[in-house]
Amino acid sequence: MRKATWYMYAVAIFFAFFFLVPTIYIIFSAFKPMAELFSTNPTFIPRNWTFDNFTNALNRGNFSLYIFNTFLVAISSTVIAVIINTMAGYALSKFRFKGENVIMLLILSTIMLPLEVIMVPIFSVLRFFGLYNSLWALIIPPAATPTGIFLMRQYLLTIPDEVIQSARIDGASEWRIFWSIILPNAKPAIATLSIFSFMWRWNDYVWPLIAINSPRKYTLQLAIANFSGEFGIDYNSIIAMSALAMIPMLIVFIIFQRQFVQGTVESGMKG
Amino acid sequence: MKRIFSLVVAVLLVFSLGACNKEQEVKELQMLWWSDGTEGAVMQTLLTQYETATGIKIELVEIPYADYEARLATMISGGESPTLARVTEGHLNNFKNQIVSLKGVYDSSGFTNLFYNEANEVISLPMDITANGLFVNTELLAKYDVNYPKLGDPVWTWDEFEVEMNKLRAGVGSDVNFPGVFDPQAHRFFPMIYQHGTKIWNTPYSASNLTSAPAVKALTRLVNFYQGDLIDDAVFAGSNAAALFRTGAYGFHMSGNWNVSSYQDLDFDWEVVPMPKDANRATILGGKSMAAFKNSKAEKEATDFIAWLAKGENHDKFTGGVPYLTPRLGANVDYGAFADNYAVFLDEIAATDASYVQDWLTQVMIPGMYPMINEAIRKAAAAEATPLEVLTELETLLKDTMK
């Protein structure tokens, strides 16, 4: 691999700056009082630091419960997503059967349907299965995603068929091949899928809005959105809680960043 | 890898048990709600009181206002109608066929701002009425020597208002961002139509006055305010007018009584002053109601609660607690520390001709009329069309909708 040169670093830093500035601005703004937040002469760093935005927001709702619910949903859904999408990706990449391309096409075509279009039918299905107003409603339906299946399929295509055939000749069962060969080799893609899935569920707003009807089951994004009314929007609380909500995503990314980059490059996925 | 996988499956199982943990099988009603200020907390105290009195628990489900209607529509279409919901006149209009009739549930003759279904049966309990009003930053106005009337003084005209507020331009670039800001909604423009001496409808939905000289004059005046930088047009780009006024860099905010409670934490002095007039004084009323929905499986419990809430002592606890202007006729609500500001709103309502109130009630029954009017005002303010062109187009749209 070619060594990175100084100008490549310069370009990377230049773009990183543009992506990071809004995020850092949000974090600093979380510590600004209302008057400063809407000041006609805004400053990047707060002139008067305050924690009031955090305390006021935390006092207005049961945020420890909302954070717990969001973790529960994001982790459970990610685990299910990894299992289902890896199996589906494996089947679609390594098994030849009638209609495999049609199935792949059908799966991919669902990407083109926005949630808003299929909201009412999915809502009816949820009701039918008794999942409405249950955290399962946030965990199960979004677990098998077409993007996840596509990501895993593309990555698993890079594993040579000969490796699998050798295992079969050695007498390994299909489960054994999946557990002992496919999963260890798919670690980078699994890490990528895990980060994406966790991020999707952590930031999900529209689906929890529809599927949950009890404040005790609210997720963080839903609770944050409640700071906006008909006539007034509590920007200070929204910004403070949005800044807090970034932390888990950062931790997940820091843990998996090496595998995330590798998986993204090798599967041809982009965020 | 196998160990990692086993671990995550174990984690999943543990979490699943938590997720599976079903709610206790206690029958519990739910009330959809959104909050602009303290009204959710006030309603919660009433719900707690109701639970103590009857043993029936009603859970307040707060939903972001921007998605409130979509949520209601999905619930109704999906067969999970809410038991109770806080609703606007727009919601009542859009969902009136799914709302339970409240005929005989409470004495509607004791309330104003009532809404009816096609069988002419009342379908909601009015919970508050809103009225437009003018908030001023008295510190900023004093600094720039801006004169303004107080309650009981002769009411200023729009021309006088413009002259006085223009004095604030001296501070632009230092402590004034714009002299003032208007909420961009239809509700804030239409009082100007009435104040300029005309009504929207001559004959409801067929003959309109929207292209008459007074109506054009009203919109032209507003457009000149925007284009002359007397008021900030950032509201059309999504800025919240109340948030702008909160900065202390605006001399006035044309808004409504709901800001009286939410402005209590401002770090500058402010008050509500009479709105300017042209030919007349006028405001328009809005408001929120409580409605019960069909197919909720708890219609009886819902109407029982509404009957309880309609009782004077309970209803006044809500309107006085927030506080809100009360729709309960003859009620003597104690507005406490807000009494002076509320007196201005009550004076605006008293000075409004009843025919204007009726005209606006006719108007709000047009489905989707708010987005139409909001867009018309935006187009005129952005000089994409003249006030006359915009009003002509709006008139056609409103009539076509009701054909």
Description:
- The complex is a heterodimer of chains A (271) and B (403).
- With 271 residues, chain A is an all-alpha fold.
- Chain A has a single domain, classed as MetI-like (MetI-like fold), CATH 1.10.3720.10.
- Chain A is 70% helix and 0% strand.
- In chain A, helix 4 packs across helix 8.
- The two termini of chain A are 23 Å apart.
- The mean pLDDT of chain A is 86.
- Chain B has 403 residues and is of the alpha/beta class.
- Chain B has two domains: 162 residues, D-Maltodextrin-Binding Protein, domain 2 (3-Layer(aba) Sandwich), CATH 3.40.190; 213 residues, Periplasmic binding protein-like II (D-Maltodextrin-Binding Protein, domain 2, 3-Layer(aba) Sandwich).
- Chain B contains 16 helices and ten strands.
- In chain B, the strands form two sheets. In chain B, strands 1, 2, 3, 4, 5, 8, 9 and 10 form an eight-stranded mixed β-sheet that branches.
- In chain B, strand 1, helix 2 and strand 2 form a beta-alpha-beta unit.
- In chain B, helix 7 packs across helix 8 and helix 15 runs antiparallel to helix 16.
- Chain B is globular and about 60 Å long.
- Chain B starts with a helix and ends with a helix.
- About 3% of the residues of chain B have low confidence.
- At the A-B interface, helix 4, helix 6, helix 10 and helix 12 of A face helix 1, strand 2, helix 3 and helix 9 of B.
